[in-house]
Design brief:
This protein is of the alpha+beta class. The chain has helices at 7-17, 71-80, 136-144, 200-208, 261-277, 323-331, and strands at 2-6, 32-38, 41-47, 51-58, 60-63, 65-70, 85-90, 96-101, 104-109, 128-132, 160-165, 167-174, 178-186, 194-198, 215-220, 223-228, 231-236, 255-260, 283-288, 291-298, 302-309, 312-314, 317-321, 337-342, 349-353, 356-363.
């Protein structure tokens, strides 16, 4: 194989594909990046065996072919090249690659004639497909990923539930103590209802796709695929039955308050400094007519209290929450104000914004004697 390409386009494509690689993978070739040159294009691909990503850039091909090179070494070299272009040639028998840039030369030993393990693809006509506007996956990542479980005991909760229904895409993440629910209109989708559970890595990598254009999402045959111009990410779906999350979403509330987001975040961060020193310390929220009080007290550390004036409705309330969970929920909101809706001292609370009904967070309070 022999081709020449620009340093900046190759470096950018490498940056996209090598994120999927797991350096500790026991299959040595899976720590490599595959380069395949033909028909005036260079295709770079990498995999962790559960996910696969391919980037495509233009190049001048003198001799079509492929080679798999150690990803870390090749990426480090390309990012440090002092020239605008470089030429790469490889021996098809040994996988030894020679990179020429200006008057200089570097040689990298590849993986011989081996190729990356073939990754499955979604057959044409066997998928549900929609188009997501630019920036959608960035917002969904911020709103959902923090609520995914980190516990291996229930692996299905480590994923994100995705449901396509007529005119709407719904996505949910929960760890059993909190739940994030987001949806967006997709009026062009009129196909049958379908639901899957995706790895959080799919959503995280989708959010990192550097494009100002729309992204195509489709799933089928146990796979999900995200496609942008010159880039395709494919991941295996998670197996298992996602829990019936609708039953924990409160339908009404006994107490409501509305608070400026920036003020609330600052207050929770300051009060949580006490709780952070003693992880068993809860955040206490008291609501009385027109007043929201936040407090935390740890016997060996100290105490903190902040009082905020804000519009309230309903009953007075005294309730306990995990302070980290409250702060995570606040950070996921992109609005000037936040609305808390409480359904009881031992019942789920809903956190939402006044100007967007398509996203909300549900949080279980900590148990307390009442």
């Amino acid at each position: 194989m022999k081709f020449s390409a620009t340093q900046d386009e190759t470096a950018s494509a490498l940056q996209q594909v090598i994120r999927v690689i797991q350096p500790q993978n026991t299959m040595a070739i899976a720590t490599g990046v595959q380069l395949e040159a033909r028909d005036g294009r260079l295709q770079l691909s990498a995999t962790d065996l559960s996910n696969h990503i391919v980037a495509d850039i233009p190049c001048e091909v003198s001799d079509p072919g492929y080679v798999v090179l150690p990803a870390s070494t090749f990426n480090d070299l390309i990012h440090r090249l002092p020239t605008a272009t470089f030429e790469l040639s490889s021996n098809p028998q040994t996988g030894r690659a020679t990179i020429r840039y200006g008057r200089n030369t570097a040689v990298i030993n590849g993986f011989g004639q081996d190729m990356l393990p073939e990754f499955p693809h979604i057959p044409a006509g066997q998928n549900q497909s929609i188009i997501l506007p630019s920036g959608t996956l960035v917002a969904l990542s911020r709103e959902l990923l923090f609520a995914c479980s980190k516990d291996d005991a229930r692996p299905i909760l480590k994923g994100v539930y995705v449901k396509l229904e007529a005119g709407r895409l719904v996505m949910v993440a929960t760890d059993g103590s909190r739940l994030s629910h987001s949806w967006l209109p997709i009026p062009e989708y009129l196909d049958v209802e379908a639901s899957v559970v995706i790895s959080p890595k799919v959503l995280a990598e989708g959010a990192r796709i550097n494009t100002s254009e729309a992204i195509s999402l489709k799933f089928g045959s146990g796979l999900i695929e995200l496609s942008a111009p010159k880039l395709t990410f494919t991941g295996r779906l998670l197996d298992g039955q996602y829990p019936d999350y609708d039953r924990v979403i409160p339908e009404d509330y006994i107490t409501q308050c509305r608070v400026p987001t920036a003020d609330l975040r600052g207050a929770v961060e300051r009060v949580s400094l006490i709780a952070a020193k003693d992880r068993s310390t809860p955040l206490r929220i008291r609501i009385e007519s027109g007043v929201l009080e936040l407090s935390a007290e740890a016997q060996e550390i100290g105490q903190a209290q902040e009082v905020m004036d804000c519009p309230t409705e309903g009953q007075d309330l005294d309730i306990l929450f995990n302070p980290t969970y409250i702060l995570d929920a606040i950070k996921s909101m992109d609005s000037e104000d936040i609305i808390f809706e409480f359904s009881g001292v031992q019942s789920p609370a809903k956190i939402r914004t006044p100007d967007r009904s398509s996203y909300f967070h549900v949080l279980l309070p900590l148990r307390q004697l009442v």
